[in-house]
Amino acid sequence: MQGERRKTKGSLVCGDSILKIDLGDALQRVYVAYSGGVDSHVLLHLCASTPQIKDQLTAVYVHHGLQAEAEIWAGHCEKTAKGLGVEFLTLRVNAKAASGESPEEAARNARYAALKSLINAGDVLLLAQHREDQLETVLLQLFRGSGLPGLSGMPERQAFGSGVMLRPLLNTPKQAICDYATTHQLSWVEDPSNQSNDYDRNFLRNAVVPLLKQRWPAIDKTVSRSAKHCADAQLLVEEVADELFNTVFNPADQTLCISRLTEHHSHPQQLIIRHWFRRLGLKMPAQAQVERILNEVVAAAGHRDPVLSGQGYSIRRYRNKLYCLKALEQEAPQDLVWPNGQASINISHDQTLSCEPSSKGILREQWQKAKVGIRFRRGGEKISLPGRQGHHTLKNLFQEAGIPPWERDMIPLIYLDGTLAAVGDLWISAKFYSENTEGCIGFHLQS
Question: Which residues are within 8 A (CB) of 217 and not within 5 positions of it... i.e. 6 or more apart?
Fold first, then answer.
């Protein structure tokens, strides 16, 4: 119901279970991730049988292109959705694994990225994961040495894209899903790769969990309960971590204050580092990596510049700050000519330098008449500054301003007719500086 605010609840009946699903306020669209397998088919059938949400429903098939049958499965899914009177959408993704990424992880990341692009404010994505899926997830995390976040398993509800992701079958046993499918004579596809024990989850599902269930028949239920306990404990940990983190974090540059960090003992320090990675949207570091950050970078003498790199980032310190930097492959910056009359110029693929009207700076008339060039540090550059005597090396000025060494070579130097007139948006040479409130320009460097 476009634009209409209302709360939608539906009762989804699966086996002996009645699942109450609260889809929240301002409902726009309900997307069901539909692979064609029995689990997602049952979820789609349940939703299509629920009048409160059927009109907002869209089935989404993610085409990974990894199996020869994928095109046939897409056709099956479309036919099934139309038979249920549900809108259908196919998303094609590139699920090729990157370096250091498992095929399972690559497919999952590609799938979630594609689905996330669909979800706008007020939209809901439904996934068909069930209680046995939760058991497998917790076991995999346990075998990988995960802490509370991993052992919490999959949440029933979480933010996703600009909307919400729900797993309404997460507390439903697999057998109830199969019984529902049989009762309603549903037709689904079987992915032959599910029988291959080369993948960790398949090995658990096919070889390990059946043995565990022979000994502990209710293991999926009890482990799911343990995951809920871990999730509750993690919420408390996050509250404590928030309080600790906020005393150490510098929001302006997303760094950590080293002196405040080292006021804490080892365990709170580790908690803060992990919270920092979560805030930056990075994959959680392994315990060994956290210890290396603390021992090799944080604990290093202040005059040293240790670098710890991994998984697309590098950890460095400068003065009293701990930085986490994206590992970018940057080409050496090239000298440029600033075209006359152009308000901005691209310095690199992620930096733009603009000239803007200002009450103080370089006179606009002088700027417009000059040949403007952009260069980068070669070493030994000096500049005179308004209100200060003598000439100052850029090296000393950068040190005074606390600019980290790795940023200095990427700061553009602005030359007018071959003379250094400004250093990025930091300083303007006394030779060119004016306080004419009517006609000056200043600079803005944007990343």
Answer: none
Confidence band for 367, pLDDT divided at 50, 70 and 90: very high
Q: Position of tokens 């003379």? A: 419
Strands 57-63 and 87-92: parallel
DSSP states of 395-434? HHHHHHHT--HHHHTTSPEEEETTEEEEETTTEE-TTTEE
Instruction: Return the residue matching tokens 């009450």.
Output: 359
| pLDDT digit string, tens, across residues 31-72 | 999 999 999 999 999 999 888 888 899 999 998 766 667 788
Question: Residue 444 has what pLDDT?
Answer: 94
203-204-205 Cα angle (round to 5): 95
> Would you state the structure tokens that stand for residue 96, as one six-digit string?
């090729």
Q: Which of 440, 238, 254, 280 is nearest to 355 (CA)?
A: 440
Q: Residues 260-267: contacts with CB within 8 Å, 24+ apart?
A: 261/298, 261/322, 262/298, 262/299, 266/294
Q: How far is CA 99 from CA 41, 102, 311, in A?
A: 34, 8, 10
Residue type, position 407, single letter: E
Tell me which amino acid residue 201 is.
R
Residues 348, 98: Cα–Cα separation, whole Å: 25
**Separation of alpha carbons 351 and 102, rounded Å:** 33
Residue 341 is predicted with a pLDDT of 87
Q: Phi/psi at 314 (nearest 5 deg)?
A: -135, 140
CA separation for the pair 389, 125 (Å, rounded): 64
Q: Which domains does the chain have, with CATH numbers?
A: 9-227 (3.40.50.620), 247-326 (1.20.59.20), 336-446 (no CATH)
Among 399, 330, 339, 322, smallest CA distance to 374 is for 339
pLDDT digits (tens, 9 = 90+) for 186-211: 999 888 877 888 888 999 999 999 99
pLDDT tens sequence across 223-273: 999 999 999 999 999 999 999 999 999 998 999 999 999 999 999 999 999
For residue 101, pLDDT over 70 is answered with: no
Give the separation between CA 350 and CA 369, rounded to whole angstroms. 28
What residues contact 172, with CB distance under 8 A and at least 6 apart? 14, 15, 17, 19, 130, 131
Token pair 């000056």 in the structure block, residue? 440
Helices (H) and strands (E) in the chain, counts: 16, 25
Q: What is the pLDDT of residues 174-184, one digit of tens each?
A: 999 999 999 99
User: How far is residue 383's CA from residue 360's CA, in Å, rounded to a whole number?
Assistant: 18
